[in-house]
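Quick one, tokens below:
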């Protein structure tokens, strides 16, 4: 049965988190307890710690209660002032992951278990292939608009997922991108040039195949929308669809099978990987 996960839009750094994300809340409560223990051991009040590290008493209190996520600057300063010996700053990775939207963490966990990832993108360049500038431009044009710190948090989450390319053993990747994703000038000319250059760089990896679906194709199996398939270590395959505010994981065998059939046809209808890289180079020369 498919699982639907609603995307959250929580703030970065010092913004409160939704009560429905219990995993993140648990991490932040643990971090808060560690900071409180170190502060009390040092004999400082919350206001005194805040003054020493450049934050208000209310902010320190919120962090200690797990109501807000401390920024890297907060953690580094608190570790130094409280003589924590790296204990507090060592929590930075846990806090960074807790900042990411739950749907991103859930997808990243699946990607970490994948031996093969296949994706068809019909409107924008797939997230795993995006440059920071392209991702920032994409989030920056959302309506209603995101706050600046929210854009930064979402871009950081997207880029963190790209660590999968350097995982060992490395998964196999297959991407099919619509021609329009290469020509739509999101962020402007220079942003798109960097994005096209990144596609060429990633597409030359031995474990990555990027294909382009030309707009002039008369027969197209992907008109129902973007799709993603992840083949897991245990042999199972799950699908993933994302549209508007909904991110949906698909595990029902019949639905997964339909996605696999469609993706196979989409790949056959697209340009070959070699033809696609030449096509991307051509578009880059025109940009």
């Amino acid at each position: 049965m498919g699982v639907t996960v609603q995307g959250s839009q929580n703030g970065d750094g010092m913004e409160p988190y939704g009560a429905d994300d219990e995993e993140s809340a648990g991490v932040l409560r643990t971090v808060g307890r560690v900071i409180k223990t170190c502060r009390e051991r040092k004999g400082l009040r919350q206001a005194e710690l805040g003054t020493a590290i450049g934050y208000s008493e209310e902010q320190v209190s919120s962090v200690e209660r797990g109501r807000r996520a401390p920024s890297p600057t907060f953690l580094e300063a608190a570790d130094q002032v409280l003589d924590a010996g790296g204990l507090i700053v060592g929590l930075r990775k846990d806090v960074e992951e807790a900042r990411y939207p739950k749907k991103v963490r859930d997808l990243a966990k699946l990607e970490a278990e994948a031996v093969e990832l296949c994706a068809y993108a019909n409107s924008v360049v797939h997230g795993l292939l995006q440059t920071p500038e392209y991702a920032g431009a994409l989030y920056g044009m959302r309506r209603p608009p995101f706050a600046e710190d929210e854009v930064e948090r979402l871009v950081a989450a997207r880029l963190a997922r790209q660590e999968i390319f350097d995982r060992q053993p490395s998964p196999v990747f297959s991407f099919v991108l619509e021609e329009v994703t290469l020509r739509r000038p999101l962020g402007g000319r220079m942003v798109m040039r960097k994005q096209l250059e990144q596609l060429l760089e990633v597409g030359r990896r031995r474990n990555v195949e990027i294909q382009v679906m030309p707009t002039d194709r008369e027969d197209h199996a992907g008109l129902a929308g973007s799709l993603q398939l992840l083949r897991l270590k245990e042999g199972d395959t799950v699908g993933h669809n994302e549209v508007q505010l909904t991110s949906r994981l698909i595990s029902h065998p019949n639905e997964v099978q339909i996605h696999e059939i469609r993706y196979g046809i989409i790949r056959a209808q697209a340009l070959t990987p070699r033809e696609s890289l030449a096509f991307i180079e051509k578009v880059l020369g025109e940009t």
